[in-house]
Specification:
homodimer; 427 residues; alpha/beta; Molybdenum Cofactor Biosythetic Enzyme, Chain A; Alpha-Beta Plaits; 3 domains; 14 helices; elongated
Chain lengths: 427, 427
């Protein structure tokens, strides 16, 4: 089964709206084992929409549209699709009743214009809209299928899960399952090189991705049953785990902060933060993870030097001589945060986010990080190489990821026993 | 001039990636007065890509692609496009030099595989990549134009602004200019009602948008010259400013943090933060704005109660009796941050981000905010109404925006003179 996605709406062509439906539906269809080889966006124009649908049906047996089911005269998807399948629109009484009830709950009478939304193609399977007025539907003719869903994501998603998904499942003869192997500290090319022989595999496939300074491998298997996909995935994932070892922070974990907080929770180790360049971003990311309050209680943002001195006890002499962006300041910040918080660990970041150089002429992208448990102190120097006018966001994101990774490396490398101080846990 | 957008990448078809490039480029081309009537997404497959390009050129004179310029064998956009235009790929020495320098900065030798990225279609205009390795380009043949940009948004955007935009501008014969009027504290419907008569205008058009608890109006004019668009925009923008008054935090300002930091800088007023539920997000957003270090030096993230007591001097009795989420704690947090930092103002947030209820059975979405200048204390209670399983992100974002808006309202309402303490600056 091949399905094309057609997104209808002039607002998409003008960029007024971010097309989140595209990602959502692509994922859902992939998980059903349905191939999506093309997606199109077209405006609220009946001739162009019809032409796009004809092209889509020349390549695929199923087309799924979103948008154009609203009450205004611009909304023409149903009319065009019904025309293409040579079906009449007829009033669907149950949908009309539901729409009236929808308005009644809000204490308003249904505007006359909305009645249009209850006229549906003859013989179509009607999809109820749990979060709005426009019903969706599915039509079949000569082995071709056309599904129409509303454009607003809340309405579309609920309708997809409740109605379109079970409808499509009847036609799907297999499933696709993926596992994401997430790494830190290795570049995309080096990662790909380490598994280069696996990248040519067919089932499961292995594909590398990179984003915001992280590299990831996705292993994807296609089979009849869940158990068969698992059996295909397991050995390949294990092989990759063996090759990439300590670079891997998790499999099917959404991000490094989640991996770090889970491990802190599992081992009941608390952490505090002292941030300059990232100014709260490390704390924010740790607390993005629900339940983080059990292992994270205190963060100090010391964006100016006098705060580094006052709240973290950084030596003013060092700030004067070596500037705020140096390893010694990073170490003293971490020590200060540990003292102030009483946490088991404290991690610190001081650096140059940019976009400008610092007063010593150093480029942005440079940061010093430290982590202390009171006995051991790990440090790390980061150089992102990003110095352009819009480097600030990227650098701050990478600095914060590196700080999270420093916690991860500590947790990976050290048990609960004390050991002599070490420098730089990273290869 | 008609332009089609073709997004190349199997990761888009699988839903691995949200296609933010589509919205960005659609907006940019609309602003240039270039019509975009179709957009397509196609995978890393040479035959299908070629067919999509042929269809696109049957409808438009210009096609812009993103993606498929990477170093791996999957990346084939350049090869396919050059084939379509019957151009050879030749080594572009300058790009190769730039790529080698890019790696050198990071202290790594360029992998051999990357050299592929420096092979460009003969006669093409080369677009330098300020944020990565893959150069882009533009080709022309028989009145048809094909532009190729890289897929990663940071690389694509920088290249578009620096190179593709000036290239396209030569072919555009009119222009569209927009102004964005950004508000806080008024809902989308109330805002739209206040300007309802303006929403039917044709040139300039006025359109309302809402996102993450903020409402915005976009005023868009079409004309031959910049001066003419300005002349069309000015009176309408002024009219809206008059009607929405103090709700407006800025015109053509990217976000509320930028508006706040600019005003703090202009008036040389410093601020400190004390955060519980947002846990660093307010500090992070303030310091997203380059130059914030002149007015922001200190943030304290007190995610656990003992840190609220120790670092901010919050009364343990109040924490015990009224919990950490109440107005008194918010006020004491702000006072504590003011004391610790010595800043002119301090703002605080304590609340329930969710997803769970608190131990008193209160729903997430509730937060108490306070701001103090040592004399005046403003407070605000926020209730987002979002309690679902994925409410956490939204609630934290809204709480932090409200904290930023509390600073804005203080700056709006109070000059440099002392005045009696007031409660809640917001209507």
């Amino acid at each position: 089964m091949t399905c094309e996605l057609v997104f209808v709406g002039t607002e998409l062509l003008l960029g007024d709206i971010l097309n989140t439906n595209a990602q959502y539906l692509s994922r859902q269809l992939a998980a059903l084992g349905i191939s999506v080889l093309h997606q199109s966006v077209v405006g609220d124009n009946p001739e162009r929409l019809r032409a796009v649908l004809e092209t889509a049906f020349s390549r695929a047996d199923t087309v799924l549209t979103t948008g154009g089911l609203g009450p205004t005269k611009d909304d023409l998807t149903k009319e065009v699709c019904a025309g293409l399948f040579q079906k009449k629109l007829i009033l669907h009484e149950e949908s009309l009743r539901r729409m009236r009830a929808y308005f009644a709950v809000k204490g308003i009478e249904m505007p006359q214009t909305n009645e249009k939304q209850a006229w549906m193609p003859e013989g179509a399977v009607i999809f109820e809209n749990a979060n709005g007025t426009a019903p969706g539907c599915a039509m079949e003719k000569d082995g071709k299928r056309l599904l129409m869903l509303p454009g607003p994501p809340r309405e579309m998603k609920a309708m997809f899960e409740r109605s379109a998904l079970p409808y499509l499942q009847q036609f799907s003869d297999g499933m696709i399952r993926s596992r994401e192997i997430r790494t830190f500290g290795i570049g995309e090319s080096s990662m790909a090189q380490a598994v280069s022989d696996l990248l040519d595999r067919e089932n499961p496939t292995v594909a590398p991705y990179a984003k915001s300074g992280e590299a990831m491998l996705r292993v994807t298997a296609k089979a009849k049953t869940e158990a068969e996909t698992e059996a295909l995935l397991d050995p390949v994932v294990q092989e990759i785990e063996q090759r990439l070892g300590g670079y891997i922070y998790g499999v099917d974990v959404p991000n490094i902060e989640t991996a770090v907080v889970r491990e802190l929770l599992r081992r009941n180790i608390s952490v505090a933060t002292a941030e300059s360049a990232t100014a709260g971003l490390v704390a924010k990311r740790l607390t993005d993870v629900p339940g983080a309050s059990a292992v994270f209680g205190c963060g100090i943002v010391s964006y100016q030097n006098h705060i580094k001195e006052k709240l973290l006890g950084v030596d003013p002499q060092v700030l004067e001589t070596d500037s705020a962006v140096c390893e010694t300041v990073a170490v003293q910040m971490a020590q200060g945060a540990k003292r102030q918080s009483g946490a088991d660990l404290a991690v610190s970041v001081t650096g140059l986010a940019g976009p400008g150089k610092d007063d010593r002429g150093r480029d942005p992208g440079l940061a010093y990080l430290a982590l202390t448990d009171g006995t051991r102190t790990l440090t790390r120097t980061v150089c992102t190489g990003q110095t352009g006018p819009d480097c600030r966001d990227f650098n701050r994101t990478v600095f914060s990821s590196q700080a999270l990774d420093l916690i991860r490396c500590y947790l990976r490398d050290f048990g609960d026993t004390a050991s002599p101080a070490v420098k730089d846990c990273d290869a």
